[in-house]
């Protein structure tokens, strides 16, 4: 399911029940702007795509299903502000259906809004990360792709949306660097290292041709149909790999980005360097990782200092 670049695919996407009536009501009765109506329309298509994948009818969902959907958006890296808008769309849609008598109960009434305050992100310890990566069997095509993809995420700290559009032409092979196009089309240059490059090269030589089509272009990581992987597709791959490795931790694509930053700081990297590598416009955003680093230092002190050891 592709949650990005929706505008060119609207005609191909399946609508929610009564969606056109709902959208018309937003424009005429509520007088929302054209941009807001387009955003609500996208949210409707995106919800229906999720429901299609889970096999649940839109008129039969309950609060738990909607909460799971919102959680999936958070896991693949949507900002709290974007999720708040999605919640507004869902509430408006189901409130409209309830008011029109289509459904008896509005399942969105008890949905909680995401917190906008900063919280410590989920990370994997270095042994956990290495165990997860080594647990992926590269003997089959999907295993080889997934190993190369997760090695790339961990080596560069890419956002999932950046990984989705990653091209072979973005790799500066001789310098072991990659060009990453982040938010607002801002470009940054990030080291990738020989390990990740080795796996990407093996994927290109031994596995990619099985998925590639004429339309695949230079996209590095492909789905089985030869297209670029969506955010949700990458999220599902990571969830499946973590489950197969029996990792009893919450993990998402952002876990690799958070672990990348934290492990660099634990290894002695300067905060400004980590800011540059992550593509943060403000160092305030990067400073959240110093809290994790301090927890690590406290844990080392507790376990290693003679006054704390038992």
Number of domains: 2
CATH 2nd-level architecture of the largest domain: Orthogonal Bundle
What gross morphology would you assign? globular
Radius of gyration: 22 Å
Give the strand order, joined by hyphens, for the main sheet.
Answer: 1-2-3
Taken as a percent bin, the fraction of beta residues is under 5%
Strands, total number: 3
CATH topology value of the largest domain:
hpI Integrase, Chain A
Helical element count? 13
Give the SSE order as H and E letters. Answer: HHHHHHHEEEHHHHHH
Walk me through the structure:
A 3-stranded antiparallel sheet has the order 1-2-3, with no helix packed on it. It has helices at residues 19-28, 34-54, 63-75, 80-99, 126-134, 141-156, 160-164, 194-206, 231-244, 253-266, 271-278, 283-286, 288-304; strands at 171-172, 177-181, 187-191. The protein contains 13 helices and 3 strands; from the N terminus they run αααααααβββαααααα. By secondary structure, it is mostly helical. It folds into 2 domains: 7-99, Orthogonal Bundle (DNA polymerase, domain 1), CATH 1.10.150; 126-304, Intergrase catalytic core (hpI Integrase, Chain A), CATH 1.10.443. Strand 2 and strand 3 (187-191) form a beta hairpin.
């Amino acid at each position: 399911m592709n949650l990005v670049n929706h505008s060119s695919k609207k005609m191909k996407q399946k609508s929610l029940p009564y969606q056109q009536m709902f959208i018309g009501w937003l424009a005429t009765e509520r007088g929302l702007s054209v941009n807001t109506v387009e955003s609500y329309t996208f949210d409707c298509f995106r919800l229906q795509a999720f429901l299609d994948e889970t096999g649940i009818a839109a008129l039969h969902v309950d609060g738990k299903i909607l909460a799971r959907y919102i959680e999936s958006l958070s896991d693949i890296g949507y900002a709290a502000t974007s999720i708040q808008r999605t919640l507004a769309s869902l509430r408006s849609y189901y409130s409209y259906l309830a008011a029109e008598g289509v459904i008896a109960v509005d399942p969105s009434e008890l949905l909680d809004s995401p917190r906008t305050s900063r919280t410590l992100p989920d990370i994997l310890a270095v042994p956990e990360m290495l165990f997860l990566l080594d647990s992926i069997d590269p003997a089959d095509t999907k295993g080889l792709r997934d190993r190369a993809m997760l090695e790339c995420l961990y080596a560069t700290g890419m956002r999932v949306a950046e990984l989705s559009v990653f091209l072979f032409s973005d790799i500066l092979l001789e310098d072991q660097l990659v060009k990453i196009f982040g938010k607002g089309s801002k470009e940054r240059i990030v080291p990738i290292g020989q390990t990740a490059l080795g796996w990407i090269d093996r994927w290109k030589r031994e596995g990619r041709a099985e998925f590639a089509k004429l339309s695949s272009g230079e996209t590095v990581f492909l789905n089985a149909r030869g297209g670029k992987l969506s955010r949700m597709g990458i999220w599902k791959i990571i969830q499946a790999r973590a489950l197969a490795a029996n990792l009893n931790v919450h993990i998402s694509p952002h876990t690799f980005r958070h672990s990348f930053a934290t492990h660099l700081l634990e290894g002695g990297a300067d905060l400004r360097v980590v800011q540059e590598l992550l593509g943060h416009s403000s160092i305030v955003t990067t400073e959240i990782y110093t809290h994790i680093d301090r927890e690590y230092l406290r844990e080392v002190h507790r376990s290693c200092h003679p006054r704390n050891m038992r």
